[in-house]
Write a structure and sequence with these properties.
Blueprint (H helix, E strand, L loop, with lengths): L1 E6 L29 E6 L2 E5 L5 H7 L7 E3 L5 H4 L5 H8 L3 E5 L1 H10 L1 H4 L9 E5 L3 E4 L2 E10 L2 E8 L2 E4 L18 E5 L12 H11 L4 E4 L7 H7 L4 E3 L4 E4 L1
Parallel strand pairs: 3-4, 4-5, 5-6, 10-11, 11-12, 12-13
Antiparallel strand pairs: 1-2, 1-14, 2-3, 7-8, 8-9, 9-10
Length: 250
């Protein structure tokens, strides 16, 4: 399996405009982060998690011209607003692309993007909504998912084999964290060092890591308050801040 971090920034990206660069070193290219999305390549199948507002440039930089399916974590625009850029993927490959999403998203997505899913006037539909289930077998790739808390809403964690992705996380429900045992790679959201009403802080995420013990953990969804080198310097062994364009082979 090949995992590409297309973008690892929070909802504003990093740095912010107008010289509002937070705490980051602008000489370090890894501190320049587009909004969060990730590409998984398994058995020549390309699965995209979320369609960030920066999707077009992300796919261009990754030299990706085909997406077989999209998995959505939640409705927030920094995870969905790049959806129109999937039209090119549909036209190039002459296919309707399935978009798996939790039931709570479906009505809003159908209303906001009617021309994408139903067609409108001169536009033919180029994607199809499929309600997300706990387990999906997509072209012989098993995808497992469950909800975690993101403040006032829920977000989907996805697990494919020994890889899992949990962005925008405040806390787990019940014993769901145990579903992340025996991971080779966990990509997890870390918005900033301290706690946020909708995001766990560094200490809580490290607590989760120490509990499930993945072989490697990479942070995503980081604001400009997190400098790559400073964060890396305090991380435990096998825990790293991610960066745009990072490729991990599992």
């Amino acid at each position: 399996m090949k995992v590409t971090i297309l973008g690892c920034g929070g909802s504003f990206g990093s740095p912010l405009a107008w010289q509002r660069y937070g705490n980051i070193d602008l000489s370090n290219k890894r501190n320049f982060r587009t909004r969060s999305s990730v590409l998984i390549e398994e058995n020549k199948i390309n699965i995209l998690i979320d369609t960030s507002p920066d999707l077009r440039s992300q796919l261009y930089n990754a030299k990706c011209t085909n997406i077989d399916a999209v998995l959505y974590t939640h409705i927030h625009s920094d995870h969905t607003a790049g959806l129109p850029d999937m039209r090119a993927m549909s036209i190039i490959n002459n296919k309707i692309i399935p978009a798996y999403m939790p039931s709570i998203m479906i009505d809003d997505m159908e209303k906001m993007y009617k021309y994408i899913f139903s067609g409108e006037k001169d536009y033919n539909p180029f994607m199809k909504i499929i309600e997300l289930k706990d387990k999906i077998n997509f072209k012989n790739i098993l995808i497992e998912t469950f909800k975690h808390n993101h403040g006032s809403i829920d977000v989907q964690t996805f697990r494919i084999g020994n890889f899992a992705y949990s962005t925008d996380i405040k806390k787990f429900y019940d014993n769901d964290i145990d579903k992340l045992r025996n991971l080779d790679l966990w990509i997890v959201g870390l918005l900033r060092d301290d706690e946020h009403p909708s995001h766990a802080g560094y200490d809580k995420i490290i607590e989760y890591i120490n509990y499930i013990k993945p072989k490697k953990t990479i942070f995503t969804h980081m604001t400009a308050l997190l400098d790559e080198k400073l964060l890396k310097s305090k991380c435990p062994k096998n825990v790293f801040p991610g960066y745009d364009g990072q490729i991990i082979e599992i």
